[in-house]
Amino acid sequence: MTSGSRFANSGETAKDGMARQGYDLQLTRYDEKGWRATFYTTGMEHSPTSATGTGWERTPWHATQRAAWEVLRRMEKDIQ
């Protein structure tokens, strides 16, 4: 398995897991500067004000992980 296919598998796992929780993922690449991952509630308009979690990192995998953690932290805070 190449490192590219490992990323694809782990990226799909994170995306699919969050989709099961009711979130859409948007990944945006900014040249060589990095990636932004943004999760939105499924069915909502995808605008900056409707984002529920966002992450900026050098790799798409890390950006997705950071954004997912932000969503989970917000969910936990809302429960308390």
Q: Could you state the order of secondary-structure elements as H and E?
A: HEEEH
Largest sheet: 3 strands, antiparallel
Strand arrangement across the biggest beta sheet: 1-2-3
CATH architecture: 2-Layer Sandwich
Number of helices: 2
Number of strands: 3
Number of discrete domains: 1
Structural class: alpha+beta
CATH C-level: Alpha Beta
Helix content: 40-55%
Model regions low in confidence, pLDDT < 50 over at least 5 residues: 1-7
Q: Which fold name fills CATH's third level, the topology?
A: Double Stranded RNA Binding Domain
Oligomer type: single chain
User: Radius of gyration over alpha carbons?
Assistant: 13 Å
Beta percentage is 25-35%
Mean pLDDT: 79
Give the CA-CA distance, first to last residue.
42 Å
Overall geometry comes to globular
Topology:
Elements: H1 3-20, E1 23-30, E2 34-41, E3 51-57, H2 60-79
Task: Describe the fold and architecture.
With 80 residues, this protein is of the alpha+beta class. The protein has a single domain, classed as Double Stranded RNA Binding Domain. Helix content is 48%, strand content 29%. The chain is built from two helices and three strands, in the order αβββα. It has a three-stranded antiparallel β-sheet with strand order 1-2-3, with helices on one face. A hairpin with a 3-residue loop joins β1 (23-30) and β2. The longest helix is centred in the last third of the chain and has 20 residues, at 60-79. The chain is globular and about 40 Å long. The N and C termini lie far apart (42 Å).
